[in-house]
Amino acid sequence: MYKARLAILFRSAEPRVCLAFWLFGLINNVLYVIILSAALDLVGPNIPKAFVLLCDVIPSFIAKLVLPYIIHTIRYPLRIVLFAALSTSGMLLITVTPAYADGGTISAKMAGVVLASLSSGAGELSFLALTHFYGPFSLAAWGSGTGGAGLAGAGMYAVATTSLGMSSKGALFASAFLPIVMLGSFFVILPREHLGRKSKSGSDSTLRVLEEHDDEDNFPPTTEAQEEEGLLQRSVAAKPPSLSQQPTESWRMSLVQNNATTDGNHSMLPLLLVYIAEYMINQSVSPTLLFPLSSTPFHHYRAFYPTYNAIYQSGVFLSRSSTPFIRIHNLYIPSLLQCANLMVLVMQALFNFIPSVHIVFAVIFWEGLLGGTVYVNTFAEIAERVDKTEREFSLGAVAVSDSAGICIAGLLGMGVETALCSWQVRHGRNWCREL
User: Fold this and answer.
1) Which of 186, 198, 208, 76 is nearest to 142 (CA)?
2) Closest CA to 178 of 114, 93, 109, 87
3) N or C, which terminus of the chain has less Cβ within 10 Å?
4) Residue 278's closest CA among 148, 409, 124?
5) Block means of pLDDT (10 residues each) for the chain, length 435 residues?
6) How far apart are CA 120 and CA 94, in angstroms?
C-alpha cells in the first residue's frame, strides 16, 4: 500500500527535471554557505562574523528587490551563463587576494563575496520563477538542492579545514569551479522544451499566459474546470479592457507584478521572521555557544562554529526535501518556534545553563528543520494559491523576504556577538577570545 502511494505520488516526476533543479539549488547556494562557513577564516576573530554575513547577503537582497521587475528581458540561457561567470569570478577574487598579514585587505576579499552574492540572489529568483514551467516536483527538487547545498558546503568546508588539514584558501579555490555544474545542468540535463514558445524576451511566457487568460474571460469556464483549477472567478473590475482597448505590453506586465505582489504578501512575513531568528543564531549567537573542551568532542574552540553550521544545514536539508511527503500551511507556527529557539540560545550564551554541548547540537538541528520548513512551504503555497498568470513573477519576487531577514539579522548581529562575548569574558568565560 505504501509503495503504491509513493508510485502515484512520483508518477508525474521527470527524472531529468528533478535532477537539473536539484543541481540548480545545490550549486546556486553552495558558495553562499561556504563563504559563511569560512567567515572566521576570512576576517579573523576580532571582526564580527555578521560583517561577512552582510557582505554575503546585502547584494543578494538588492538583486532580489530590483531584478524581478527587469530580469524578464534577459533570456534564461544568458542568465545562467552570467550567474556562473559572476560566481566563479567572486570566489577567485577571494582566493587570489593575499592574507591581511601579507599586504592583502579584507575589503578586496569582501568584493569577491559581493560578486558571488549577486549571482546567488539573481539565481535564486530566476530558478524559482523557472519552476513555474516544470511543475511542483521541480520546486521540491530545488528546495532539496538548496538544503543539500547547506549540508555539502558546511560539511565539506569543516572536513577539509579541520579533518583533512587543507588551508582555507585551498578549500575556497576548489569551490570556485563548482558553477560549471550549473551550466551542465541547464544546457545538458534540463529538457528545455518545457519553456514553451519563447522568443527574444523572457516576458513572452507571462504575456502568453495572460493572452490565454483573456480568452478564458471571453469564454467562461465550466464548473468542472473551475473546480479543477481551484481558482476564484475574477471580479469585473479586475478584467482587462475590452478588445477595442487592447492593453500594451507594459500594461500587462504591470498588472502581473501588482497582482503577484499582493498575493505573495501573506507568505512573506513568516519567511522574514524565521530568517531573522535563525541567522541571528547562526552568525551572532552560535560563536558564543562554547563549553570547556574537556567536556566536548573538540580539541580547539575554532571547531565549534563550523560544526554548529554543519548540524544546522543537515536539518535544513531534511526539511527542504519534505514537501512531497509533508505540507505545512500555517507558517507562523514554525516561525514563532524559531524565535523561541533564538531566546533559548541567547540565554544559554549569557547564563550557561545547558549542561552539555550535545543538547545544543539538538537545538541547532531543530533550528535547521524549522528554517527549511518555512522556506520550502512558502514557495509551495505560492505555487498552489497564486494565479497562473502571476505565478512566475511571484515565485521570484517573494524570495526577497529571506534576504531581507538575513540583512536585518546581520545588522543586529554586529553588536549582539560582541556584547555576548564581552559578557562572557566579564563572567570568567573567555573562550570566545580563543577562537
Assistant:
1) 186
2) 87
3) N
4) 409
5) 53 83 94 81 72 84 86 90 94 81 72 92 90 86 89 81 80 90 95 62 42 44 42 39 42 44 64 93 92 92 86 91 86 95 97 96 96 91 80 76 87 88 93 84
6) 16
